[in-house]
Design goal:
- There is one protein chain.
- The protein has one domain: Vaccinia Virus protein VP39 (Rossmann fold, 3-Layer(aba) Sandwich).
- The chain is built from 9 helices and 9 strands.
- The strands form 2 sheets. A 7-stranded mixed beta sheet has the order 5-4-3-6-7-9-8, sandwiched between helices.
- It is an alpha/beta fold and 243 residues long.
- The structure holds S-adenosylmethionine (SAM).
- S-adenosylmethionine (SAM) binds next to helix 1 and helix 4.
Length: 243
């Protein structure tokens, strides 16, 4: 990894990025779900539904939902009867997730504090690995992809849902103006925190485009990689197989 990495539009040391991302999610944890609805007009729910349909979880699967945060993906996966482990580096996000699971009566999830770059899970422990809106926050993305491959069983599948760059002309300008002007204000109004939401928007801009990220997945050793753009690539589902 190089000496500095991007934290939104700034360049910082890798350790500083990890610490600052930690600060962002500790700060937003309690308002995270409300803000997701407010920022996306509820659309994040549809993207997550579609993502989980792509995973096609089966009752016999062991699934690792990495950067699982407050559990949105895990709750959907668990409906299949799969054994789901929710892992996240941030205890505040996991705490909100555990409370939400209890309120919804979702039982049987395993919650684990873990850094995607270096996992304690044994080799080949899971049939699927999911990461939704998480990978762009990880400091060393190639390391996280290598770990994803390591913990997947042969024939296991990797799925990533992440913001990307829309290729619809016109729409990208509107979205750009909305995200840079409106989202930090919404963050201030609803979560009392404009700065964290500014980072979240900037980090979307700094994330590699769809083709480049697909190549990174292939470089980590995944095969039959695919990318499915949603809204022209505003959001994308990347996938690959471990053989
Ligand atoms: N997956 C959830 C969802 O879709 O609602 C949460 C997404 S939230 C935008 C990003 C999550 O990534 C946060 O919970 C954050 O703590 C987690 N995260 C950031 N860096 C991480 C890392 N290195 N390892 C594991 N989780 C990480």
């Amino acid at each position: 990894m190089s000496d500095t990495v991007s934290f939104g539009y700034s360049q910082v040391t890798p350790d500083e990025k990890t610490a600052r991302v930690g600060g962002v999610f500790t700060s937003v944890a309690s308002s995270y779900d409300l803000m997701n609805d407010a920022m996306s007009g509820g659309m994040h729910r549809l993207w997550k539904d579609r993502f989980v349909r792509r995973v096609q979880p089966r009752g016999t699967d062991r699934i690792l939902d990495m950067a699982g945060g407050t559990g949105d993906i895990a709750f959907r996966l668990a409906k299949s009867g799969a054994s789901v482990t929710v892992a996240d580096i941030n205890p505040a996000m996991l705490e909100v997730g555990v409370e939400r699971a209890a309120k919804r009566g979702v039982e049987g999830l395993v919650w684990a504090e873990a850094n995607a770059e270096s996992l304690d899970f044994a080799d080949r422990s899971f049939e699927a690995y999911t990461i939704a809106f998480g990978i762009r926050n990880v400091t060393d993305i190639p390391a996280a992809l290598r770990e994803a491959r390591r913990v997947l069983a042969r024939g296991g599948r990797f799925f990533c849902l992440e913001f990307s760059t829309t290729q619809w002309p016109g729409f990208s300008d509107v979205y750009d103006a909305y995200s840079h002007r409106v989202v930090p204000r919404l963050g201030k109004l609803l979560a009392g925190d404009a700065e964290s939401y500014r980072y979240l928007i900037e980090s979307i801009r700094r994330f590699p485009d769809m083709g480049s990220f697909e190549r990174m997945i292939a470089e980590a050793g995944f095969v039959r990689t695919r990318v499915e753009p949603l809204l022209g690539g505003l959001v994308a589902i990347h996938s690959g197989w471990r053989i």
